[in-house]
Amino acid sequence: MAVTSRRVARVVPLAPAVVLLALFMLGPVVWSFYGSFTNAALTGPAALNPEWIGFDNYVALVGDPDFPKSLWLTVVFVFLSAVVGQNVMGIALAGLLRSAVKPVRSIASTVVVAAWVLPEIVAAFAAYAFFHSEGTLNTLLAGIGVTGPDWLYSTPMLAVILANIWRGTAFSMMVYSAALAEVPPELTEAAQLDGANGLQRLTWVTLPVIRRSISTNLMLTTLQTLSVFTLIYVMTGGGPGTDSSTLPILAYQEAFKFAQVGYGTAIATVMIVVGGIFSVIYIRALRPEVD
Amino acid sequence: MRTARFLIAPVTAAAVALSLGACGSGGGGSDDSTIKVAYQKFGNFTQADELFKDVKADFEEANPGITVELVPIEAQQNDYFTKLALMNRSPSTAPDVMYEDTYMIKSDVEAGYLAPLDDYLAEWDEWDQFVDSAKEAGAGDDGKTYGVSMGTDTRGLWFNKDVLAKAGLPEDWAPTSWDDLLEAARTIKESDPDVVPFNMYSGKPQGEAAVMQGFEMLLYGTGDTLYEDGKWVTGSQGFVDALGFVQTVFTEGLAPTPQQALDTNIGNTVQAEWLPEGKVGIALDGSWVAGNWLESGVAPWPEWSEKMGTAPMPTQDGQDPGAVSMSGGWTLAMGSGSKNPDAAFEFISMALNRENSLWFDVANSQIAVRTDVAEDPEYTATNPTTEFFTGLVDVTNFRPATSDYPKVSNEIMVAMEAVMTGQQTPEEAAAAYDEAVVGIVGEENTVQG
């Protein structure tokens, strides 16, 4: 009896949060999942009476040449800008800034964090202005006599990947700064006395100690990057053609530009699955041997 | 901790799904003492906004106790349709009166967004002033009338006489075939490489403007069409040829660069800047373009009538009837959920009475659909191109009047963009279009062209 009432007492304070999460997080997911099995649309007969069409949306998705391309672009975007770019840049900056003198550290971290505190739409316009054919980058290149290409048009993926690294590195840098501060100095000093060089100390001492921060950070940046929409939409609109249409852009286009909400939600469901797969990989790969 | 981590994935993805899934219907909200009027206001197009502001004042004076709430939607054409559709899905946001493109009417009727106006029109003594084609343009598939036409339009070639003169082309230039047009564009390019010889809208960002002002002006000049005897045409040579024209102008540098052409603002830029500044030679565009340059427009240009020339868009090889045009137009429609349909119709009838129709047709360079407006000297005198564009009515075409058209139109934008960016050849893009159309309307509703 006492056990039951204690259990109830523990659950009660959680209830409002659970209800809110279910309503505003789980609800839309379930609704989106349901919508992906209908032909819901914004106009035409299907807008009035959406019909249950089973797996038709998914079958159409598999047969749609835009879809595998979009899936691939999404994986490339996430891998290069989040997994490689933001994480490696983040840890490198955090490490370098630890040993830098104070003014350098303040200035550098302010510059990096500035990109992170900008609202996404402002950051997206800044990146657009930077990579535009007559933008900052090409003006600078022209100053040294180089004619830059039209980045947003000829190399749209490169442009959005660089922009996302610029925007997101601050987050990883802060996570890793905190993690590195927690590495016990005795460990690195001991390794140094044993004759380990800088790279060896990083590989064998620092990284294993901060591995849990790495896995958390990898997962957060991956999932944030997976759902990046504004940055790409403002910079390239998913174009030219479909050359930078990642899954969020494709889903938006199908659901809202082409009014096929059911089809758009099917793409959103695929995104949930992709996010889930990434999460499982991180949790498995970086599972701590000892807790 | 493990479970918490697992939750992060669906929760983050849910943030995206949220925007897609959360468009169900909401609770009721608007009452019968407020009339909500939704319309587009974007870039150079501010005429509807001015019209409705005036009508709001008059309406509220005539109907004390009823408030008109204006909802200008600041979005480009395709986004306007999306936002309007989203508003229509929820009773708390659904407008009572909306500015509706004729090509969306049939589709939106089937979606249940619009209310039939027949009972009101039967009692409106001004309805017989509207020409028959305008009445048909507002009809749904069930034969009832859902929209009252504000004006119609045609499309043709605009050209800057100074630019053409520099290239040695005459002031009364009028091409007789596509080759003729392309030749003129090449001549302009040679005479001044800094000028964009020819502008046509193309690609997804331009939406229906690309399809109607661009692609269909080409396709309907080849002898092929999109839709024939109730079936969608696939595999026609005209479709491939029209895409071939798009490919030619964009790969030869006769048009704006693809990146310029894919900028959502190019329509505003061409009309308000490039044409007046002589940065574009020839522009394939609508009859309403001159509205920008009138005193009431956003880019007044008093000399425009001397500097700008017009010519009909030729057919592919000059085959009969020699020229081609497309017509559309916008209407005012009533929302099916209106709590006060009597007041909503009164607003529509006030906005489109003789005086207001005249003002809108003149300010927006529309072709009048009310006979009393068409005969008005003020209408015929203000704009010297009115006569030319009204004359194109003889060779004009209308878009397929079916509820599938908006979806098919999207596939045409996709094909155009694929060709202009060099991602597909015209043949490949046409094949992809054929496949998409079969997917939309079903094999049984298509016919081999």
Give a structural overview.
The complex is a heterodimer of chains A (291) and B (449). Chain A is mostly helical. Chain A contains 16 helices and no strands. In chain A, helix 10 (156-181) runs antiparallel to helix 13 and helix 11 runs antiparallel to helix 12. Chain A is globular, with a radius of gyration of 23 Å. The relative contact order of chain A is 0.13. Chain B is 45% helix and 16% strand. Chain B has 20 helices and 15 strands. Chain B has a five-stranded mixed beta sheet. Chain B has a four-stranded mixed beta sheet with strand order 6-9-5-10. In chain B, helix 2 (47-62) links the parallel strand 1 (34-40) and strand 2 (67-73). In chain B, helix 9 packs across helix 19 and helix 19 packs antiparallel against helix 20 (426-441). The chains are: A mainly alpha (291), B alpha/beta (449). Chains A and B meet through helix 2, helix 3, helix 13, helix 15 and helix 16 of A and helix 1, helix 3, helix 4 and helix 19 of B. Chain B: Keywords: Signal.
Number of domains of chain B: 2
Query: Which two chains form the greatest contact, residue counts included?
Result: A-B, 59 and 53 residues
Rg of chain A (C-alpha, Å): 23 Å
DSSP, total strands of chain A: 0
Identify the CATH architecture of the largest domain in chain A. Answer: Orthogonal Bundle
Q: Can you tell me the overall shape of chain B?
A: globular
**Whole-number total of structural domains of chain A:** 2
Into which percentage range does the β-strand content of chain A fall?
under 5%
Mean pLDDT of chain A, to the nearest integer, reads 87
Helix content class of chain A:
over 70%
Strand content range of chain B: 15-25%
CATH hierarchy class name of the largest domain in chain A:
Mainly Alpha
CATH superfamily of the largest domain in chain A: MetI-like
CATH architecture classification name of the largest domain in chain B = 3-Layer(aba) Sandwich
| C-alpha-based Rg of chain B, rounded | 23 Å
CATH superfamily of the largest domain in chain B: Periplasmic binding protein-like II
**How many extended strands of chain B?**
15
